[in-house]
Design goal:
This protein is mainly α. 83% of the residues lie in helices and 0% in strands. It is built from seven helices and no strands. Helix 1 packs across helix 2. The longest helix has 32 residues.
Length: 157
């Protein structure tokens, strides 16, 4: 296999994988909307900090118990996921019909939307002190942001 063909194949696999991941993330949030609202509410209510051993922290004043706000948070993430997924699939189509130069604006748009929803989750997590009792969630979101940045580098450099 020639080098240019292996690079093309690598880009094709990453572009399709990104589009598929974003699509599945959005589908999961649509199908499991109530469960996702509960999970977001769990963080926004700061419930993990209230479990044994409980932590007495002035940060607990930040807790939000409004179900409407939990739903709104998910809707914002979901809209960004849908926009990212649509842009990624457009990028994949352009990749197969016109190559990476034609796909790049769409793939970058998808990565921008993905970075946006991940950074929103990081900022919300920081506000609601998820680093104290939800290390796994924080680590997952950090790894996803690193993956986003790595994809941007692979596609653009």
């Amino acid at each position: 296999m020639q080098l240019q063909h292996s690079i093309w194949l690598f880009h094709a696999i990453l572009g399709c994988g990104l589009a598929a991941w974003l699509t599945l993330a959005a589908i999961n949030n649509l199908h499991g909307f109530h469960g996702a609202v509960w999970a977001i509410g769990n963080t926004m209510r700061m419930d993990p900090l209230r479990q044994d051993p409980t932590l007495q922290s002035p940060l607990l004043r930040r807790a939000l118990t409004s179900l409407a706000l939990h739903r709104l948070a998910l809707v914002v993430v979901l809209l960004l996921q849908l926009a990212a997924g649509i842009a990624a699939w457009a990028g994949v189509i352009f990749f197969f019909t016109g190559g990476l130069p034609a796909a790049l604006p769409w793939l970058n748009l998808a990565l921008c939307a993905m970075a946006a929803f991940l950074l929103l989750m990081h900022l919300a997590g920081l506000w609601f002190a998820y680093w104290i009792a939800q290390e796994g969630l924080q680590t997952t979101q950090l790894v996803l942001l690193l993956w986003t940045m790595a994809l941007f580098a692979v596609f653009n450099f």
